[in-house]
């Protein structure tokens, strides 16, 4: 989408509200058109992922970007994609989005490469700084590794 798509924050908020009302009923990845924009979206529990492009944009490229974004966020959050975990790790997610595209140009579509660029190593985070969901996931992985030996 062009940078001039929203003249002010009010226009952007209005567009976001219309987009959410139109898409919040579906849980699968889908494509929709709204106000001259192609929107691909996906929701997981209480988190919604959106990628927007011009009306003439190739939907397959947008879906590829969406899948890369979701997969990389899922890897960063250790498969625990929920609102609280997303908010706790928003800095890493912003870095992933920044590495995903630059001025509307898709820079990476491999989630593993994207996560490697972000440089996250959540297994090295001290247990006291992890959320409960992250701590449980970390414990599961440690148990799995010890059983495999």
Explain what this protein looks like in three dimensions.
By secondary structure, this protein is α+β, with helices and mostly antiparallel strands. It has a single domain, classed as Beta-Lactamase (2-Layer Sandwich), CATH 3.30.450.60. The chain has helices at residues 9-23, 59-76, 83-88, 90-100, 111-118, 132-148, and strands spanning 30-34, 37-44, 47-54, 101-102, 105-106. A three-stranded antiparallel sheet has the order 1-2-3, with helices on both faces. It has a two-stranded antiparallel ribbon with strand order 4-5. The longest helix has 18 residues, at 59-76. It starts with 8 loop residues before the first helix and ends with a helix. 18% of the residues are buried. The mean pLDDT is 79.
Characteristic terms for this protein:
Beta-Lactamase; 149 residues; AP_mu_sigma_su; golgi apparatus; two-stranded antiparallel sheet; elongated; alpha+beta
Compact overview of the structure:
With 149 residues, the protein is of the alpha+beta class. The protein is built from six helices and five strands, in the order αβββαααββαα. The strands form two sheets. The chain has a three-stranded antiparallel sheet, with helices on both faces. A two-stranded antiparallel ribbon has the order 4-5.
């Amino acid at each position: 989408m062009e940078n001039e798509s929203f003249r002010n924050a009010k226009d952007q908020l209005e567009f976001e509200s219309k987009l959410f009302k139109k898409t919040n009923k579906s849980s699968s990845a889908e494509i929709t058109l709204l106000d001259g924009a192609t929107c691909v979206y996906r929701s997981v529990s209480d988190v919604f992922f959106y990628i927007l492009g011009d009306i003439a944009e190739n939907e397959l490229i947008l879906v590829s970007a969406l899948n890369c974004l979701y997969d990389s966020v899922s890897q960063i959050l250790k498969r625990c994609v929920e609102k609280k975990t997303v908010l706790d790790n928003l800095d890493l997610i912003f870095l992933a989005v920044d590495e995903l595209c630059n001025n509307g140009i898709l820079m990476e579509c491999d989630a593993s490469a994207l996560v490697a660029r972000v440089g996250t190593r959540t297994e090295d985070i001290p247990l006291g700084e992890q959320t409960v969901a992250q701590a449980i996931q970390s414990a599961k992985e440690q148990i799995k590794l010890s059983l495999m030996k």
